[in-house]
Write a structure and sequence with these properties.
Elements (H helix, E strand, L loop, with lengths): L10 H7 L26 H8 L14 H14 L3 E5 L2 H12 L5 E5 L4 H10 L6 E5 L4 H9 L4 E5 L11 H10 L3 E5 L4 H4 L9 E5 L13 E5 L1 H14 L5 H11 L2 H20 L4 E5 L9 H7 L6 E6 L2 H8 L7 E2 L9 E4 L10 H6 L6 E5 L5 H18 L8
Parallel strand pairs: 2-3, 2-4, 4-5, 5-6, 10-11
Antiparallel strand pairs: 1-7, 6-7, 8-9, 9-12, 11-12
Helix pairs in contact: 1-3, 3-10, 4-9, 6-7
Bound molecules: pyridoxal-5'-phosphate.
Pyridoxal-5'-phosphate binds next to helix 4.
């Protein structure tokens, strides 16, 4: 089934209307949550045709489900992909995309700063199936190109990265990967389709943790992979057999959340920019990572490939964990949690969130300071968020020896 939405509709309109019409029943204005595990066929021939994929329809929820399909359609339209397939989590989407295409003896080129779970797939699980993974310094495009040229089956990128907000030039690296026949995958979770469309930059597969901005309300896990029909047929087959399906309730929550994606992302990015500028001037702050800042080492690349800089920033605080431990309990408009991309502002140190799976030495090797605090900006009023941070930082200053300010 395909969408009736006008091809020229803009992204905010697609987020509201996209993917829904074919799935409504009884004149309902919202997509139903179809919980039935299986589907009834009195005509055995028709049943077989649907089961073999020769005719559209549903047979069993591990293969497909109408609510999940509606959610997949909405993401597909936002990413301007031929096909989108949903998974039970972002990690299920990432691992399924990788395992669908990788074989023993293959070589993956990626960067050091991917999400901690992804990093574990590269360092712990892919070696078990004799897939070599080379993790390059994230901002070093020449190094990544050199490694690609040595032989590469999959180039895997994340931009901006979690939690260091580093940027890679997706178009440049996708070109290098295509030259050696590699498949290019990009985790677009931080940017969202509002701010970045990697398929337009030459990428083959775009991956999202829908747990984050797509759903937007921190109440559901999900993931999605988008790409060409030919590639996605393989990803679909992997999912139907391995079974990391998205639950229909979860699909509904993501579908509903996505309707406000553009409004949320716009507000979050505006506040993130102001908070980044505020923090840059604060004496307790060592550095601020936000691609919207002119001081960001790859601000120019971000400007070229993104429509906005997103709702996440991270800050390295003087005094490291001691400062973070004093700061976090003082914040009023804050969840101190391991999630991001929600309507509420969320603070999380790398040590307990994105890189909790890593040892201290591994985090150090990845260049992740113990004083690094990720801020996922919510949709609250910007002034309130800055006032909140300001009072909490003032409290920390009052509690710390003067020497910390001179660090
Ligand atoms: N990709 C990025 C960039 C993430 O930040 C996360 C989780 O924080 C994931 C993937 C994994 O997503 P999930 O928690 O939905 O499995």
């Amino acid at each position: 089934m395909r969408e009736h939405i006008d091809n020229n509709a803009r992204i905010g309109t697609k987020a509201v209307w996209g993917g829904e019409k074919d799935f409504r029943v009884f004149g309902a204005t919202q997509v139903p949550v179809v919980l039935s595990v299986a589907y009834d066929y009195s005509d055995v021939d028709e049943w077989q045709e649907v089961a073999l994929g020769n005719k559209p329809g549903y047979t069993y929820n591990r293969m497909s489900n109408p609510t999940v399909r509606a959610m997949e359609e909405k993401v597909r339209l936002l990413e301007e992909a031929e096909e989108a397939i949903a998974f039970s989590s972002g990690m299920a989407a990432i691992s399924s995309a990788l395992y669908t295409f990788l074989r023993p003896g293959d070589r993956v080129v990626s960067v050091k700063d991917t999400y901690g779970g992804t990093n574990k797939i590269f360092t712990e699980f892919l070696p078990q199936i004799h897939v070599e993974t080379v993790l390059c310094n994230t901002g070093d495009h020449e190094e990544i190109e050199r490694e690609i040229a040595k032989g590469c089956n999959v180039l895997y990128l994340e931009s901006p990265t979690n939690p260091t907000l580093k940027i890679t030039d997706i178009e440049r690296l996708a070109k290098a990967a295509k030259a050696v026949g590699a498949l290019v995958m990009v985790d677009n979770t931080f940017a969202t389709p509002i701010n970045q469309n990697p398929l337009k930059l030459g990428v083959d597969l775009v991956i999202h943790s829908a747990t984050k901005f797509l759903s937007g309300h921190a109440d559901v896990l999900g993931g999605v992979v988008c790409g060409s029909a030919a590639l996605m047929e393989k990803v679909y087959h992997y999912r139907e057999i391995h079974g990391a399906n998205l639950d229909p309730w979860a699909a509904y929550l993501i579908l509903r959340g996505m309707k406000t994606l553009k409004l949320r992302v716009r507000q979050q990015a505006q506040s993130a920019m102001e908070i980044a500028r505020f923090l840059q001037k604060h004496p307790l702050v060592e550095s601020v990572n936000y691609p919207g800042l002119e001081t960001h080492p790859h601000h120019d690349i971000a400007k070229k490939q993104m429509n906005g800089f997103g709702g996440i920033l991270s800050v390295v605080l003087k005094g490291e964990m001691e400062t973070i431990k004093l700061l976090l309990p003082r914040l009023q408009y804050a969840n101190r949690a391991g999630n991001l991309g929600a309507v509420e502002t969320i603070y999380g140190p790398a040590r307990t969130t994105s890189h909790v799976e890593c040892t201290l030495e591994e985090r150090r090797a990845l260049g992740i300071s113990e004083g690094l605090l990720r801020i996922s900006v919510g949709i609250e009023d910007t002034e309130d968020l800055i006032a909140d941070l300001s009072q909490a930082l003032a409290y920390v200053e009052s509690q710390m020896p003067l020497s910390i300010h001179n660090l």
